[in-house]
């Protein structure tokens, strides 16, 4: 399913470096966040614990705490500098906790989370079985997973501009909605619903887009990327190819956003693995079932 791999150390480094500039460039992230919060309307209970995975600078976490003031709300991010900035969004009467960890290894007990929220983070994780397996592990049965992620058409113009210059990997790639949906089902998540929206942002010049990507920490992190500096002539040719896409005085950039939600499975529900379907039960649930 996944033909490419991300350099996790580089992903962490990119976002750590962008912590101070992220909120200068996160207009799209905030718009997607508003749409994602609407998915939480499906959860009709009062959650005890809410997890914001890939919380970044904590804008979304603060909104979750405002929505669920009585819940324990935890911001999780792999980049410690991001969590330091998130402290600025704390409110005296609405504090939330901050936890530096990876989405595939959450330091939380099994079935301890009512709502798991993640805005534009999951595209930076290439091991979908591990990711959604961890979501299933920490979600309570009937708990809600709501997330957004970038799809493969994201930055297609930038990718095409580089392709006009050479065949090397210059732009991060993202998984298709169908691959994401299959991974959710295989992990055992119930009743997944996925939607796709496309946003077209425009810029005065290609360099403005590149500056925004750097300011967000959303720069190239594939392991297959070239490890040496791109030559000036290559760079100028890429810019020229991008300039040819200018419309009404602006250059476009497409962002494909997958928004999804699903529910934590009941205890013992089978999940699919390469070895077949596996169902798990607690020891307590099996006590008394032996014949005597």
Automatic annotation (TrEMBL):
<keyword id="KW-0949">S-adenosyl-L-methionine</keyword>
<keyword id="KW-0808">Transferase</keyword>
<feature type="domain" description="Methyltransferase type 11">
    <location>
        <begin position="51"/>
        <end position="147"/>
    </location>
</feature>
<protein>
    <recommendedName>
        <fullName>Malonyl-[acyl-carrier protein] O-methyltransferase</fullName>
        <ecNumber>2.1.1.197</ecNumber>
    </recommendedName>
</protein>
<comment type="similarity">
    <text>Belongs to the methyltransferase superfamily.</text>
</comment>
<comment type="pathway">
    <text>Cofactor biosynthesis; biotin biosynthesis.</text>
</comment>
<dbReference type="GO" id="GO:0010340">
    <property type="term" value="F:carboxyl-O-methyltransferase activity"/>
</dbReference>
<dbReference type="GO" id="GO:0009102">
    <property type="term" value="P:biotin biosynthetic process"/>
</dbReference>
<dbReference type="GO" id="GO:0102130">
    <property type="term" value="F:malonyl-CoA methyltransferase activity"/>
</dbReference>
<dbReference type="Pfam" id="PF08241">
    <property type="entry name" value="Methyltransf_11"/>
</dbReference>
<dbReference type="InterPro" id="IPR013216">
    <property type="entry name" value="Methyltransf_11"/>
</dbReference>
<keyword id="KW-0489">Methyltransferase</keyword>
<keyword id="KW-0093">Biotin biosynthesis</keyword>
<comment type="function">
    <text>Converts the free carboxyl group of a malonyl-thioester to its methyl ester by transfer of a methyl group from S-adenosyl-L-methionine (SAM). It allows to synthesize pimeloyl-ACP via the fatty acid synthetic pathway.</text>
</comment>
<dbReference type="InterPro" id="IPR029063">
    <property type="entry name" value="SAM-dependent_MTases_sf"/>
</dbReference>
<dbReference type="InterPro" id="IPR011814">
    <property type="entry name" value="BioC"/>
</dbReference>
<dbReference type="GO" id="GO:0032259">
    <property type="term" value="P:methylation"/>
</dbReference>
<dbReference type="GO" id="GO:0008757">
    <property type="term" value="F:S-adenosylmethionine-dependent methyltransferase activity"/>
</dbReference>
<dbReference type="InterPro" id="IPR050602">
    <property type="entry name" value="Malonyl-ACP_OMT"/>
</dbReference>
């Amino acid at each position: 399913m996944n033909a490419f791999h991300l350099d996790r150390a580089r992903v962490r480094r990119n976002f750590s470096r962008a912590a101070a500039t992220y909120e200068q460039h996160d207009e799209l992230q905030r718009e997607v966040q508003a749409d994602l919060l609407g998915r939480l309307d499906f959860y009709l209970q009062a959650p005890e614990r809410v997890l914001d995975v890939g919380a970044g600078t904590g804008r979304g976490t603060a909104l979750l705490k405002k929505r669920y003031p009585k819940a324990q709300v935890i911001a999780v991010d792999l980049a410690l500098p991001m969590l330091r900035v998130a402290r600025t969004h704390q409110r005296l009467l609405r504090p939330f906790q901050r936890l530096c960890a990876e989405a595939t290894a959450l330091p939380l007990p099994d079935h301890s989370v009512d709502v798991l929220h993640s805005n534009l983070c999951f595209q930076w994780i290439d091991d979908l079985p591990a990711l959604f397996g961890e979501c299933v592990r920490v979600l309570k049965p009937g708990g809600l997973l709501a997330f957004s992620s970038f799809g493969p058409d994201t930055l297609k113009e930038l990718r095409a501009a580089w392709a006009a210059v050479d065949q090397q990997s210059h732009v991060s790639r993202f998984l298709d909605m169908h691959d994401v949906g299959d991974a959710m089902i295989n992990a055992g998540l119930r009743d997944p619903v996925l939607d796709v929206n496309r946003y077209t942002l425009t810029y005065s010049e290609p360099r403005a887009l590149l500056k925004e990507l750097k300011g967000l920490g959303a720069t190239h992190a594939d392991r297959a990327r070239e490890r040496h500096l791109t030559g000036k002539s290559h760079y100028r040719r890429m810019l020229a190819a991008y300039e040819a896409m200018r419309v009404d005085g602006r250059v476009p950039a497409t962002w494909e956003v997958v928004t999804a939600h699903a529910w934590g499975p009941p205890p013992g529900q089978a999940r699919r693995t390469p070895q077949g379907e596996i169902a798990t039960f607690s020891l307590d649930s099996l006590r008394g079932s032996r014949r005597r």
